[in-house]
Amino acid sequence: PPGLLGSVDDVTITCWFNWGGGSDWQRVYSFGNESPIRTIYLCPRDGWTGNNLHVTIGGPSGIWYDWNPNTIATDTWYFSALVLKGDSCKFYLNDELWVNAGGVTLNPTDFAPDSANYLGKSHWPDPTFNGMIDDVHFYPEALTQEEIMALLYTEPAKGMVAHWKMDDGAGTVVTDAAGGNNGTMVGLDPAAAWIT
After folding, report:
1. 168 has a pLDDT exceeding 90
2. Residue 141 needs a FRET pair 20 to 30 A away by CA distance; which of 77, 88, 107, 192 works?
3. Backbone angles phi, psi at 110, to 5 degrees
4. Using H for helix, E for strand and C for coil, what is the string for 108-157?
5. Contact 38, 65 (CB under 8 A)
6. pLDDT tens readout for residues 15-69
7. How far apart are CA 36 and CA 39, in angstroms?
8. What is the pLDDT of residue 153?
9. What is the pTM of this model?
10. Contact, 115 vs 138, CB < 8 A?
11. Of 79 and 165, which is predicted with more confidence?
12. Residue 120 — φ and ψ, nearest 5°?
C-alpha cells in the first residue's frame, strides 16, 4: 500500500524470509517510488562480487547507501530488521547486527510520496522473489535492540502502522492486521502463492 513513509521521521521494517535461490537482485521488499526511483530494499543476493545479501537506501537527490555484509544460505528462515533513525541505519539478521552505519543523510520522508511499496518485487525489472515471506511489520519509529530481539520470539503490541501476517491463505489481498493498509499480490498465481 502507498503512503507508509511520507509522515514518519524514523522507521523499522521487520520480516521473516526464506530464499529459495535463483537469480540475483530479487527483493524481499522494496519500499518507495518508481519514478524517479527512491527505495529502501532488502535483496537476498546481489550481482556484485561475492553475491552477498544487500541492503539499500537511496535515490533522493542521487544519494545512495549500499551495504552487502555477507552471504546467506538458501532454504533457511531468517529474521530481518532494518532501522532507520536520524543519521543512522542498522540492519539485524536473526540476532546479529550486520550493519551499523552512521552519517546516513536520508530519512523516510525523503522517499515520499511512496506510491510503490512492494513485498517480493523490485522497483527495477529484476526477478520476483523466489521463496517465502512471513510476518512483515512496519513501525513508524526506531525500535531498540531489545525490542527487535523480542520480535524474534514474541509479538509486541506497541505502535505498528502495518502488520502483514501473510496468512490469508487465498486470493490476492494481503490483510493488514494492524489497520487499513491492506496490500495486493501482483504477478503471482493466487492459487499457488499461499502455503497453509
Report:
1. no
2. 77
3. -65, -15
4. HHHHCCCCCCEECCCCCCCCCCCEEEEEEEEECCCCCHHHHHHHCCCCCC
5. no
6. 999 999 999 999 999 999 888 888 999 999 999 988 999 999 998 888 999 999 9
7. 10
8. 79
9. 0.82
10. no
11. 79
12. 75, 10
Residues 6+ away with beta carbon under 8 Å from 86: 10, 142
Closest CA to 59 of 31, 28, 97, 98: 31
- Residues with Cβ within 8 Å of residue 6, at least 6 apart in sequence: 108, 109, 111, 112, 113, 114
* Euclidean distance between CA atoms 15 and 81, whole angstroms: 7
Using the 8-state DSSP alphabet, how is residue 176 labeled? B
User: Given this model, what pLDDT does residue 2 score?
Assistant: 84
CA distance 6 to 126: 25
pLDDT for position 169: 76
Residue 165, CA distances (Å) to 60, 98, 143 in order:
30, 25, 19
User: Do 33 and 113 meet the contact criterion of CB atoms below 8 Å apart?
Assistant: yes
Of 133, 130, 119, nearest in space to 165 by CA: 133
